[in-house]
UniProtKB/TrEMBL annotation:
Domain Glutamate synthase: 159-473
CDD domains in UniProt: GltS_FMN
Entries under InterPro entries matching the protein: Aldolase_TIM (IPR013785), GltB (IPR024188), Glu_synthdom (IPR002932), YerD (IPR027283)
Keywords from the named record: Membrane, Transmembrane, Transmembrane helix
TM segment ranges: 30-50
Family, similarity comment: Belongs to the glutamate synthase family.
Name this protein carries in UniProt: FMN-binding glutamate synthase family protein
């Protein structure tokens, strides 16, 4: 009986106060205000009783709405009051703070030692030298472009990863690109095409070509060579990247509803207004590994000989080997491959995909690196890495495992003001980064945030230079697995080359035996099709 009283007491109290306020209207205007407030609550309570969608408010009229309120603000409460500095959800406060500090060009040192439990399993560190070096120039570069590339590109070893206009606001795109221009590094367009806001900044672009062929498509969604050539030959475009899959949702297509398509998005993507914009799960320009290599060769020719490569999140490892075999058979070798880890996630994705599809970056990167070594192609193909790479240690680690350069999306989002509100897909981003609402994106002031983008890049490269010098090296590209140590269990650790093996050059071509299953998959891979000889993967 008492429980029932608690459940319905807010409604009963609201009704009584409404009647009381109405009876006192002749005394003061305050009674009118009270009547409106309690009358509204009474109406809500009665509606709660008769509605059929929410069991909680049906059983707890008025009171049940508190649950939805606290559920709505739960992420903010956790982030600001409860979450620990080192809890990764998905980026820790400590990691976000170092990005903010470097973007604002303020002191990023911390007193009183590490807060990380160095004795716990999984802890990682880099070995240092008793004879460290001082590195003056931290503008580290890597030349991308194989033997068939006529316009190789000297890229920074740290660049902005793929984020499309439409997913990001116009102001965010401009700030990122102007920052890239000021800092001398590259900005990946994402699969949404080259917008006017990419061009306004004047920064180097990596033109990503996804399965929707946005900006280079026919009306039926197929690839249009003439439109591609017109965009790819622009001097601002330095490289072309074919997107096979992305870490957030590998193997999953996407749709931008017609209601969200603005004239500017339609212009960038070369799509009609009033129609849902579909990104298919797979490409229509090729369906076999051999056709894929021919497509890459076509793009290289149409672009005037610029570096052409592809991005993928590793799935079936044999399928990647099919692509490598197609390289050997056709003689068409991409200039670069970007390995995206499943940790990627600027784009909203189904929970099952975000949590349980695709290889994490470290495992995917190691496999791609070793497969290319085994096929004798590693010296012809540069490898980029993408997936939660925000600090100098993250960069040193992937360079040691086999990458030539790294990309970051969320790191640069933090630099332009992202607070990890995780409302990217709602069009209600509180800092104007991932919204098309002109009022909300007004909060993002382009000149200020562009400076922060350049600061973040410069200070991260400076920190990487200091780590490189402390290890006794002269360039981050000299990091190797043995520079990395990993805590295996309490009081025990492993050297990186015991975990991240560098397989012998050409071992797949020689069919040398190996302990890790590479050769077994290599024998089942074929250049003619992605499907295996049998049912395995």
């Amino acid at each position: 009986m008492f429980t029932r009283f608690i459940r319905f007491s807010p409604l009963a109290l609201s009704a009584l106060l409404t009647l009381g306020a109405l009876s006192g209207l002749i005394l003061t205007d305050w009674f009118l205000i009270a009547a409106i407030i309690f009358g509204f609550l009474t109406f809500v309570g009665i509606y709660d009783l008769i509605q059929t969608k929410h069991a909680i408010t049906r059983n707890y009229p008025i009171l049940g709405h508190l649950r939805f309120f606290f559920e709505e603000i739960r992420p903010e409460i956790r982030q600001y009051l409860i979450e620990g500095d080192d809890e990764e959800v998905p980026f820790s406060r400590a990691t976000r703070t170092i990005v903010y500090q470097r973007a604002k060009d303020i002191e990023d040192a911390k007193p009183f030692g590490t807060r990380i439990r160095v004795s716990e399993s999984g802890y990682q560190w880099i070995t240092h030298s008793v004879k460290p070096r001082h590195i003056e120039d931290s503008d580290f570069r890597v030349e991308i472009g194989g033997p068939d590339c006529k316009q190789p590109y000297k890229a920074s070893i740290y660049n902005i990863s793929a984020m499309s206009f439409g997913a990001l606001s116009a102001n965010a795109i401009m700030a990122l690109n102007k920052g890239a221009k000021a800092g001398g590094f590259a900005h990946d367009t994402g699969e949404g095409g080259i917008s006017r806001y990419h061009r306004e900044g004047g920064g180097d672009l990596i033109y990503e070509v996804g399965s929707g062929y946005f900006g280079c498509r026919n009306h039926d969604g197929s690839f249009n060579p003439e439109k591609f050539a017109m965009r790819a030959q622009d001097d601002q475009v330095k490289m072309i990247e074919v997107k096979l899959s992305q870490g957030a949702k590998p193997g999953h297509g996407g749709m931008l509803p017609a209601a969200k398509i603005t004239p500017e998005i339609a212009e960038a993507r070369d799509i009609p207004m009033g129609v849902d914009c579909i990104s298919p799960a797979s490409h229509s320009a090729f369906s076999t590994p051999l056709e894929m290599m021919e497509f890459i060769g076509q793009l290289r020719e149409l672009s005037g000989g610029k570096p052409v490569g592809f991005k993928l999140c590793v799935g079936h490892r044999r399928e990647f080997m099919c692509i490598v075999k197609a390289m050997l058979e056709t003689g068409i070798v991409p200039d670069f491959i970007v390995v995206d880890g499943k940790e990627g996630g600027t784009g909203a994705a189904p929970l099952e995909f975000a949590n349980h599809m695709g290889f994490p970056l470290v495992e995917g990167l190691s496999f791609v690196h070793n497969t290319l070594r085994g096929a004798g192609l590693r010296d012809k193909v540069k490898i980029g890495a993408s997936g939660k790479l925000v600090t100098a240690f993250h960069l040193a680690k992937v360079l040691a495992i086999g990458a030539d350069w790294a990309n970051s999306a969320r790191g640069f989002m933090f630099a332009i003001g992202c607070i990890q509100a995780q409302s990217c897909h709602t069009n209600k981003c509180p800092t104007g980064v991932t919204t098309q609402d002109p009022v909300r994106q007004r909060a993002l002031v382009v000149p200020d945030k562009a400076t922060r983008v350049a600061n973040f890049h410069r200070n991260t490269m400076k920190a990487l230079a200091e780590m490189t010098g402390a290890a006794g090296l002269t360039h981050p590209g000299q990091f190797l697995p043995h520079h990395l140590l990993v805590r295996d269990r309490e009081r025990d650790f492993k050297v990186g080359d015991e975990i991240y093996h560098y397989m012998p050059e050409g071992f797949l071509l020689r069919e040398d035996d190996d302990r890790f299953g590479y050769l077994k998959r290599w024998k089942r891979a074929r250049a003619e099709a992605f499907e295996p000889f049998d049912s395995g993967v």
